[in-house]
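#onboarding

Welcome to the new folks! Below is a worked example of what a typical request in this channel looks like: someone posts a single protein sequence, and someone else replies with the predicted structure as tokens. Don't worry about understanding the tokens yet, we'll cover that in week two.

Example request:
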Amino acid sequence: MDAGGDRVLHSTNVAVIREVYDHEYSQDFFSMELEKALESCCTVIVIEPTKLGDETARWITFGNYLHKTAVISGLTSIISGFAWPDNFAPQAPLSILSTLCAGLYTASWQFDHCVKYQVEKDIRRLARMPILGALTASSPVVLVRKDDTKRKILHSSVALIAASLCVYRLYRTIR
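Example response:
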């Protein structure tokens, strides 16, 4: 346990941010403890404080939605470009949306440590984590570290291809 008694790092590389209100600025303290756990690249982070857990889960979920929107709109743009080669209208807005979402994701999450984590919701996986039996909160948020390299390559590539095809078709149309 650390000096504050609120974060426990186990040999399994698990961080538990306990919901202990013994500080005047507990919410700020919880946030700092989460930052420490994220920066130390823990494999699993358990967040007991409800407010911090909900905010973190929403932030990660929003990033996931941006990623999915970039990929789906980009793929739809590419497909619509080949399905309707004479009609530029359906391809352009989808390509722009894909590029904007991929750009926003890259700009907002590139240096954020949360990008490496996903919220674990699978009851079976959670049940296999021995640390969860010692928790004091009834519904903690559990973050699991995941490699996001493929995710970044996927949405960046799809957005780039969609934008390139869109610009090429625009160039061909204007010329």
